[in-house]
Design brief:
CATH architecture: Alpha-Beta Barrel
Bound molecules: guanosine-5'-monophosphate, manganese (II) ion, sodium ion
Organism: Vogesella aquatica
Structural class: alpha/beta
CATH superfamily: EAL domain
Keywords: Membrane, Transmembrane, Transmembrane helix
Protein name: EAL domain-containing protein
Order of helices and strands: HEEEHHEHHEHEHEHHEHEH
Number of strands: 9
Number of domains: 1
Length: 252
């Protein structure tokens, strides 16, 4: 309850903020998209979202928290666009949120407020989010795509029925879970499975993004397999808006 009380205070004081991790074109290294990752600044460093998102969700604080952090993320990307730094923004959408009847309308309001096109946004959804009501989830995805949003299946390969999701839902992108990437360089079977997933995703016209790329050797293998985009500590860590803005200005 102590954490919950402090989280309420942080939300009321609007101190939570988004960090941004670049997602780069696998061949050119150009930053094409940034994933917003919430951070809670404390006197002694940052608290990881893994520690407070479950608390926020259980306490019913997630919708308010998401609104504040997304508003900042969208405003930051708006400002980057104004100076010609044209990156897409990727947002993690929790299962509960994706299920909520308010989700689409609230997102539309925030995106309009930031004067961004929905086509500049990627919504990252995990398998868990579409587990509940298949028909409702399918309809919501189609509605979002008709508005122009891109939809990614996040952490692909960690769930139980990943393959059936691929033919049941109209994803645009597939984010390959970092557990596959971690095994690439020393596990022949993992390498074959990864190559097959990428080939299958391409058959379905999905853009493939590999997560958790930590080594040059992993990047080289993913490039050889035709992986479209990569993300991970080998490329860039999650950065503050200011640090990433400086980096992108420097790189262009
Ligand atoms: O940011 P990493 O630094 O620790 O994030 C840990 C987990 O929290 C990841 O699974 C990520 O998808 C999730 N996460 C990070 N930021 C957000 C957010 O703003 N909203 C939601 N729903 N999940 C987030
Ligand atoms: O679940 P999701 O894929 O949204 O998780 C994003 C999380 O992955 C964030 O916590 C982010 O900090 C973390 N992350 C990003 N790049 C790497 C990496 O190269 N290695 C590891 N171990 N984690 C990473
Ligand atoms: Mn993600
Ligand atoms: Na992921």
């Amino acid at each position: 309850l102590e954490l919950e009380a402090r989280l309420r205070e942080a939300i009321a004081a609007d101190t939570l903020l988004p960090y941004f991790q670049p997602i780069v074109n696998a061949d050119s290294g150009q930053i094409v998209c940034v994933e917003a990752l919430v951070r809670w600044p404390q006197a002694n460093g940052m608290v990881s979202p893994a520690a407070f998102l479950p608390v926020a969700e259980a306490a019913g604080l997630l919708p308010g928290l998401e609104r504040l952090v997304r508003r900042k993320a969208l405003a930051t990307v708006r400002a980057w666009h104004d100076e010609g730094l044209l990156v897409q923004l990727s947002l993690n959408v929790s299962a509960a949120e994706f299920d909520s009847p308010h989700f689409v309308g609230e997102l539309a309001m925030l995106v309009r407020e930031a004067r961004l096109q929905p086509s500049m946004l990627v919504l990252e959804i995990t398998e868990g989010a579409v587990l509940g009501n298949q028909d409702a989830a399918q309809a919501r995805m189609q509605q979002l795509q008709a508005s122009g949003y891109r939809i990614a299946i996040d952490d692909f390969g960690t769930g139980y029925s990943s393959l059936s999701y691929l033919h049941s839902y109209p994803f645009d992108r597939l984010k390959l879970d970092r557990s596959f990437v971690a095994r690439l360089t020393h596990d022949e079977r993992a390498r074959k499975v990864t190559a097959a997933i990428i080939a299958m995703a391409h058959e379905l016209s999905l853009v493939v993004i590999a997560e958790g790329v930590e080594e040059a050797a992993q990047l080289a293998m993913l490039q050889a397999m035709g992986c479209n985009q990569v993300q991970g500590f080998h490329l860039h860590r999650p950065l503050s808006a200011q640090a990433l803005g400086e980096l992108m200005r420097h790189l262009r």
